[in-house]
Write a structure and sequence with these properties.
With about 625 residues, the protein is an alpha+beta fold. It is about 40% helix and about 20% strand. Strands 5-4-8-2-1-11-13 form a 7-stranded mixed beta sheet. A 5-stranded mixed beta sheet has the order 15-16-17-19-18. α6 runs antiparallel to α7. The longest helix is centred in the middle third of the chain and has 25 residues.
Length: about 625
Amino acid sequence: MKFTFISICTLLIGLLVISSCSTNLDNSNENKSDARSQAILNMKRATDHHSYSKPEEAVVTHLEWDAKVDFETRTVYATATYSINTSEDAKKILLDIRELDILSVRVDGSETSFDIGDGQAFIGAPLSIPVTPSSKSVSITYNTQPGADAFLWVEGNENSNPFLFTQSQAILARTWIPCQDSPGVRFTYSAKVEVPNNLMALMSAVNPTEKSTDGVYTFVMDQPIPSYLLALAVGDVEFRSVGEHTGVYATPDLIEAAAYEFGEMEDLLVAAEGLYGKYAWERYDLLVLPAAFPFGGMENPRLTFATPTIIAGDRSLVSLVAHELAHSWSGNLVTNSTWDDFWLNEGFTVYFEQRIMEAVYGRDISEMLATLSYRGLVDEVSEIMDLNPDDTHLRLHLKGRNPDDGMTAIAYDKGYLFLRMIEETVGRETFDDFLSTYFSKHAFTVMDTDNFIEYIERELLADEQTRKAVNLTAWIDGAGLPDNCPNVYSERIEKVDNAVAKWAEGGLNTSDIPWGEWLYQERYRFLKSIPESVTVEKLDDLNVTFNVSGTGNNEVLFAWLEQSILKQHTDSYPRLETFLINVGRRKFLTPLYSAMLETGQSQMAKDIYKKARPNYHSVSTGTMDELLADA
């Protein structure tokens, strides 16, 4: 395929946003920016089926957000003012909204009418605001709803203060800020946020390190980001520096443990820069959220949101930090243009994560992680192939579907294996040069799958024989895992598989399992590999011998609890209930509730979920509601 108008537009949009949002430009540069933006607005660009916005007619470039957070009503009252660029025949600007109460709208300071179109499930409705080719700003005053899907309001008690956090990916930013909620639209922002004066506000921006006396905080994000990377958290948190460019935020009861657990973040950052170039966001800090957070982490620029379930006391789960850090290049710096191109974010990030882990902790560790990912992917591919083979393509087909449907191991681990295969085909040094150039050349822009194919064929796979060996079509638009999938192998994981087989067959005593010598990856693999033939008595013997259910590593605990359900090890059920009520990470919830349904324990699943549901974010309740609907 040839370079299209779409790809040219994609590259120029990022340059436009950077130039048009800088406060230090002279008039000449501003005029050039206006001319460039006018040209871009008249070009075609990739269609995002999950956004009503039409950036070719009018596009946002900078957001000023003025907000007051009310914990009593669980709402935010705010005004969002956008700087905009318009086409020569612009008549309206379209913003995405869902669960928002629009109070008033202004264009260039004057109040104007507005229209809210018909809504669609999970997508919301279009907010249409009349503009002209000369319009420079639109301002929307609004209230959020108490049940806005991006928010989770965590109640305080006698031992803790309330907490609020957002999760905007994939299309939930529109539930707390009217926006052009497409990953293909980037903008800078500034904000003023008022919160209770005993709490601290943080955003995906330049952040405070101490509480203000009046509860008012100001923020600046000078680098252009898409709306899904907008983030807000409000809570009783403290800050600890762990390196020259790195630090952690956590509640007072967790701050010391977090500072220790993530004390090697600076090493990870240095390793990442050594691989693919200068970190573009100045600081890399991490906020430990309440356990209700639905993901392991979220790569909000400058401030990764992380689950406390990765605090194990021994720094054993830092691969998640490596993953979110890697997003600072793949995803945050070069962003998927639409959610059909999600693999361009996550596949690159898993590849980069593995390279960081190898650089800091050695090939032995990174290959164990890669092997576990590969084994999990094989299982997931098998399940998806039975339902919809197209969902095993790297290029997704999500029109008419919730983009969360694409957040599977396909984008992450098939994407990783695809890039690993290319590395093994062309050589690591050559591939590293390609990736470094890719990130620098496309910094602060968006990328879609077709444009990536054109780029890699021209820059890396120009040789016909190499292109044939890679076979882009089989990976990107083919089902399952292609024949040239890399052989991922870990000798340590192989030894674990041999041990679990011998133990299950009675050839290895429980006391002879080298549990104390194993790292968490090996313990996790052992538990996940226990066959159906193992009795509940044998499982109990394992627990009595090694106190498995008492582990502080939540990955290992999850694997144990899953086995406990499958074997009906009832002694572990109190720990299971406590875990499910307090932990909202979807990665853990889905297999555990599914295991209860599969083993005829649906009533237990429903009883636990009834208690736990108020503690879960909408990302998790959406999945669990569907799973348990017919239970």
